[in-house]
Amino acid sequence: MPIYQYILKRVLIAIPTLLIVSMISFAIMRLEVHLPPLSVQWGGQAVQLFEGFNINPIDPLAELRLNPAISKAALEQERARRGLDKPAPIQYWLWLKNLLQFNPKALVQGHLNQFFTPNLGLNFSGESVAHILAQRLPNTILLNLVTIAVIWLIAIPLGIYAALNWRTRLDTLLTIFSSTGMAAPSFVIALLLGFVAVKTGIAPYGGLTSVNFEEMNFLEKLFDLAHHLVLPVTVLSIGGIAGLQRQMRGNLLDVLEAEYVRVARAKGLPEHKVIYKHAVRTAINPLVTMFGFEFGTLLSGSAIVEMVLQYPGIGQLALEAARQTDTNMVMSVMLLGATMLLLGNLLGDILLKVVDPRIELA
Amino acid sequence: MAKPEPPKTGPAPSPTTAVVSDPLPATGTPPPATLWRTIWKECRRDQLVMAAATFLVAIYGVMLLSGFIAPYTAHFSDRDLAYIPPTPIFVVKDHRPAWPYVVPYKRVFDAETYNVGFEPDYSRHYPIRLFYSGGAYRLFNLIPTTIHLFGVDEPGRLFVLGTDQNGHDNFSRLLIGSVPSLTIGFLALLVVFPIGLVYGGASGYFGGRVDNLMMRLAEIIMSIPQFYLLIALAALLPSDINSTLRFALIVIILAFIGWAGLSRVIRGMVLSIKEQEYVEAAEALGASSLWVIWRHLIPQTATYAIVAVTLGVPGYLLAESALSFLGLGIQQPDASWGNMLSEAQNLSNIIYRPWLLMGPGLLIFFTILSFNVLGDKLRDVLDPKSQRTA
Question: Of A21, A195, A247, which has the smallest distance from its Cβ to B223's Cβ?
């Protein structure tokens, strides 16, 4: 199957997936559970086995109503927009209609940014959800891309090195490092490194830009961004490097025993050619398959690190929204997260095809 | 959806390769006694694995007796002594060795520097008493008792690892908080495994369109970033329920998120076992599907299950501690390692009160490390074809 056809197919499959994801998040935000207490008669006495509990449906406008800056009229408008007095399926339909605001005219006129203008409503403090997401999304993507690049650039050479020096002291050291990196919870690493950063002043803690970011020239801006990324990227990549390094080492060790490696050596190829042209290329393939999977774990992992380090990304937004039970924001964030995950998986599969042309896309 | 065919084993430890280690179809997998003996023989040779296993046995043993070993209950609090550092224990009295004792402390406030300090009163001594009768608790969650392994008379205080913001004894909370942290993985897997087995088994067994539809649903659950789903669900839990119920609901939430991945693996196993020659042979000999499931499928999933449980527990431990750390899991005044760590969110606590972070942080770290070491070894032993780790 040609690659563009494959991409088209995957995108078409993604549409119903995302629809169901949005339905699930919609259902979660309207979850209502009532379990009555349960007691049995035991020797003439009532013994309570289970005290029962209620999950009451959340009032989607509660926070807005408490906010003095939101006028009655705006509140009424939001209620009408979401059809909160109508049954749930109609509310969902309205939500979907508000999301899918496409404007083909803008495309013709050349205003590309006005082509897709979803109306996602207001968050708990009355700001536009779409506006906030547009601000935060690039930050999370930037963080994740830089982290993946750092992980691969460090872990692959380390893995190759460890495999080629199997069971030497340095290999043992790397094994200990990778076990440590995989066992330490990311938020504990974030706390410790955050403490070090604050104490020593090596890297700034929290945020993505300095206060005077707007006054800087291009180079200064770039440096400022990079400086602010040091801490979150370091925290996030420790776990990733540990895992990927181990995988690479294991794969390469397996491949080094393969027949064709022995044949290549027997032919008299120089050792570096045997390793880098034959063994490493094969050993790296399964890792590329993992790429999409890794993107997903990273997205989930970066959420808690964003929260601890106060990084202005989607993860921090998700926690804030969940704590406030902010229906609009939670639904948008879940959908956005799922979209990024699906895109990451697709990217991984396409990359695999590029790395290994023998693979048939189906 | 057909994924591009990976040239080697994918990210998940391919369980189907366990088939290879069992070339004799007529006898099936060796009886469990031999299986455990093989594991024991292999593990005993590896010092690191033995260390990990010893640590786990010790920590679960302490967990069982946590109420007894802890000098205070989890809810005990002395607000006058909030944030006091670990209590020093003296063993010398009047230049002579003496039975260990502690001295009482008083909170003092320096009006000039605004510093809060703690002043010892060396004139009064409180010896540490063994089998001390203190706060009431239930041993093994069953037997009501007041006997603690050690303690000191009031108003003396023995805070082995200092106290937190509310004057709770950190050491006691570390012990009692180990119960939710250490059991959540097994409890969640207890819920996840039956769901995954039935769902994945049915999907693989029926095949075709049913399989397609069921796996698509599992993929949809997996396409929501897990942590987002976790916090969205946890935030809905009512705040007025008791801690046991809250804990149970968190287990259910974790299971709801975790079943999809497992069911995919189980499905893969069922599909490949269906294709095995010895299964065909058994069927040709007239074996019923129940016999095939009992003699061939279950024994093979058993080895996989051992590995999956050992490698799966740390994930749930991490999820619980992350949730509690964010204030969405186990709530104060109940203790878990995660919610003890949440005190460390305050940077000044890390700098001035490191004892708050050290205990739970190190315990989480070493527990996960031990499970990983043990799980890797088990995988190597039970599934020799999978990736080499040592």
Answer: A21
Which residues of chain A lie closer than 8 angstroms to B229, CB-CB? 334
Chain B contact for A32, CB < 8 A? no
The answer on A345 and A197 residing in a single domain is yes
Say if domain B178-389 classifies as CATH 1.10.3720.10: yes
Tell me the ipTM for this assembly.
Answer: 0.85
DSSP labels, B177-216: THHHHHHHHHHHHHHHHHHHHHHHHHHHHH-HHHHHHHHH
Of B7, B322, B357, the CB nearest to A304: B322
Question: Quick check: pTM over 0.90?
Answer: no
Contact at 8 Å (CB) between B204 and B268? Answer: yes
Distances in Å between the alpha carbon of B26 and those of B135, B277, B301, B302? 60, 12, 18, 18
Say whether both A141 and A157 belong to one domain.
Answer: yes
The residue with tokens 């031999």 is B34
Tell me the domain boundaries of chain B: 87-158, 178-389
Is A150 within a domain?
Answer: yes
Number of domains chain A contains = 2
- CA-based nearest distance B213→chain A, Å: 12
Position B9 pLDDT exceeds 50:
no
Decide if pLDDT at A130 tops 60: yes
Nearest to A319 among B224, B326, B347 (CB): B326
The answer to whether the Cβ–Cβ distance between A323 and B235 falls below 8 Å is yes
The answer on A333 and A258 residing in a single domain is yes
Q: Where are the alpha helices (DSSP H) in chain A?
A: 3-29, 62-66, 72-82, 88-99, 104-109, 129-164, 169-183, 186-200, 218-255, 259-266, 271-273, 280-309, 314-323, 327-355
Residues A182 and A302 in one domain: yes
Residue B356 clears pLDDT 50, i.e. is over it = yes
For A108, the domain range is 61-123
Regarding whether A159 and A115 lie in a shared domain, the answer is: no
Given a contact cutoff of 8 angstroms between Cβ atoms, the answer to whether A233 and A150 are in contact is: yes
Q: What is the full DSSP assignment across B137-166?
A: EEETTTEEEEEEEEE--TT----TT-B-TT
Span B162-187, mean pLDDT?
A: 89
**Taking CB atoms and an 8 Å cutoff, what residues of chain A touch B349?**
none
pLDDT at residue B20 above 70? no
Q: Do A338 and B223 touch (CB under 8 A)?
A: yes
Judged by a CB distance cut-off of 8 A, whether residue A359 touches chain B is yes
Interface test with chain B among A180, A191, A331, by most B beta carbons within 10 Å: A191
Nearest CA in chain A to B369: A183
**Cα A70 vs. chain centroid, distance in angstroms?**
32
Same domain, A144 and A267: yes
Using DSSP, state whether B107 is helix, strand or coil. Answer: strand
Tokens found for residue A319: 């926690």
Residues A298 and A183 in one domain: yes
Residue B329: its chain A contacts at CB < 8 A?
A: none
- The last residue of a domain, from among A89, A123, A157: A123
Q: Do A185 and B234 touch (CB under 8 A)?
A: no
CA distance B132 to B246: 32
Residue pair B87/B158 in contact by the 8 Å Cβ criterion? yes
Same domain? A113 vs A201 = no
Across chain B, mean pLDDT equals 80
In terms of CA atoms, which chain B residue is nearest residue A20?
B220
Give residue B369's region: left, alpha or beta (phi > 0; psi -120 to 50). alpha
- Where residue A241 falls among pLDDT bands split at 50, 70, 90? very high
Task: Give the burial class of B66: count Cβ atoms within 10 A of its Cβ; 0-12 exposed, 13-18 middle, 19 or more buried.
Answer: buried
Domain boundary at A108, A123, A138, which?
Answer: A123
Query: CB–CB of A300 and B225 under 8 A?
Result: yes
- Chain B residues whose CB is inside 8 A of the A185 CB are 318, 321-322, 364-365, 368
Residues of B in contact with A359 (CB under 8 A): 4-5, 7
